[in-house]
Specification:
The chain contains one helix and 26 strands. It has 330 residues and is mainly β. Strand 2 and strand 3 form a beta hairpin. The longest helix has 4 residues.
Length: 330
Amino acid sequence: TGLKVSGQRLNVFTRTYHQGVNFQYSDAASLSVPLKEPYERPYGCLAPKSVQAVYPDVFYWADEGVIKLGAEVNYSDGTPRPQSLSRKIDPSLDFANRTYRRNACAKEYRRQYYLSIPYGADTFNSRTFVYNLVRNAWTLRTGFYPTALELFRNSNYEQELYFGNYFASEIYKFNSGYSYAGAGYQKKWKSKNFIHGDANIIKVWDYIDITGSMDAGTEITVTLTVDSTKKKYKIDNTHLELDAFGEYRGDNFLGDAFLGGSEPSESRFKRFRVRIPFNSAIKEGYEMSITLENSEDEQPYKIDFIGIQYDYRPRTMIPPQFINNEPISS
């Protein structure tokens, strides 16, 4: 049910026990030799995503509660000895929905271990228990329903905690005020450099078509870069599609389904379509890239299609700045 490395030991978890595989370097073979430990140790793991490396230990959720395999407490043979961290909250953990406990998820963030579990009759992760490693204390958080927790570095190379929402196709970031409420985040996407098959032929770009859906309050900045020249454009609610009744596509049925949700009240996303012509400053060049980003937090969008209209110049054509007709010797 899970794997996690701790030092030279690979912890292998099953539903009923855990067992270690140690990697020892062999000078004769010039490689690391895996050695399986002879004993199966208690306790097994309930949920694969609860297994987390919390340096220098490993935390996971078992039938006996939240367990730590600690580097400082060992059996006589050096194998980490399981230690309970959750004795104070084990009565609460016992109220977890036993059928769906395997869907629990966890992550260590800023010296706190977050464990989200399906509580009571809930089939989704409805309560999050947070263990503070510094204070050796537990707190309970509710009001968000993570399907997964993950860390990602921001532009300042600081780790931030994100989670997926069970009830919608949304990703949230924990804010910095320690309220543990979901907060929006900026979304930026950058394409590869398009050379269209040959980097040594000049291309002539006519236009780019972009379709997708977004919130009516979203503004998307489109940056087109041709060689070293950039031009920026904006997609906003003036580019939203209207149906025959003059309403935004997404408010009503499209075929048999609502756009942006299964119910009218969930139809937050509206369809948009835009064509951006390449102006003279970025009309010609060797390579082109596209960057899409929202202007601020809480401005979601989704891209369904990007189409690029272009043609080739003859191979003999080359911009004047790349022509060298000045020999340094006769």
